[in-house]
Amino acid sequence: xxxxxxxxxxxxxxxxxxxxxxxxxxxxxxxxxxxxxxxxxxxxxxxxxxxxxxxxxxxxxxxxxxxxxxxxxxxxxxxxxxxxxxxxxxxxxxxxxxxxxxxxxxxxxxxxxxxxxxxxxxxxxxxxxxxxxxxxxxxxxxxxxxxxxxxxxxxxxxxxxxx
Length: 163
Known about the structure:
Elements: H1 11-31, H2 33-41, H3 48-60, E1 63-64, H4 65-72, H5 76-88, E2 92-94, E3 105-108, H6 110-130, H7 136-160
């Protein structure tokens, strides 16, 4: 009779698999920009950074520039320029933080909320094309795996990020 115990793990093999997964994740993060730019940003007359700001503010709500820089992984100067452009175009507006008067949050304006709503069908088209060969169970597993990795990133940053 065979044992039902799980096979011992090999740190070298597991490490190599983790490296391969990380490389694939980095490739995905890099290459997804093309379909998002061509299929979502450009048809809405947005730059890639503008789109990311619209999506962040639409999904997270009111945020300050440094918050946007951190969650988007975009240099503060790029965020500042994009916010100025979106403010000039009437897509974002200044908010306020009564608890911290030095904090300068931004939120989507009514026009910005309309643009955010317009991104959803465009993203559905891009997602439909990119995920066309994945079944429902594969999409769910992919989503769960992404959420698990995303949930671990803040703790890793707390332990290994700049002091």
